[in-house]
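thread from #wetlab-drylab

HS: before we spend reagent money on co-crystallization trials with S-adenosylmethionine, can we at least see a predicted complex? here's what I'd submit
DV: go for it
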Amino acid sequence: MSFFEEISPEMDRYLESHASSEPDILKRLRKETFRKTTQPHMISGYQQGRLLSILSKMLQPKNILEIGTFTGYATLCLAEGLKKDGKIITLDVNQELAYLPRKYFEESVFSNQIDFRLQDARDFLADNKTLFDLVFIDADKENYVEYLALIKPHLRSGSVVLFDNVLWYGKVLEENPKQKATQRIKELNSLIAQDEDFENLILPLRDGVNLMRMK
Ligand SMILES: C[S@@+](CC[C@H](N)C(=O)[O-])C[C@H]1O[C@@H](n2cnc3c(N)ncnc32)[C@H](O)[C@@H]1O
């Protein structure tokens, strides 16, 4: 789903019908997410899912980290590009919903490569020492600035990081935003743009994806 008025529903349908098709397991997961969850719009969805899949296939990562599993849609897209002996760690704190990603992970051809943990991402990043080739951050926006600092020691030259929702429904254009999430996202985008350790650009796909590469 696109939140930008510039992208009409017709254009959105056009974009979708001219992208690679979505594997059947993802179609079913998307439908079940819309049937069974109260905030289905949180799912990465078709176009962003294909972006994650293609990037992952280009990078062929050994270690992927996802912060914010939700129902596991993006996890399965990212897993499509893993090396044969690669692993994706995906973190969430929502115990009640965990049955849903678990069900699809078990069914997936990547089941042995997915390490789904119910753990706060801040605790994980502080305790764990793994270096990641690809990181997708799509969780609590208020902590995005903290995630940027915490993720850096887990990167090496060439690692790719994506932060989702960095246009925040267009609210990043507000001069003095009252909402904390908007303030944090604006701060994050500025920090990334000024950080000499990264090259980046914001892709205006869906709600905006900040695509970064560690130099
Ligand atoms: C936007 S959803 C993730 C969507 C998912 N990546 C996808 O593309 O389908 C955000 C998720 O982040 C989780 N979350 C929030 N705070 C978190 C934290 N501190 N650590 C890990 N996950 C967190 C929420 O429970 C929620 O399921």
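DV: The mean pLDDT is 96.
HS: ok that's useful, forwarding to the group
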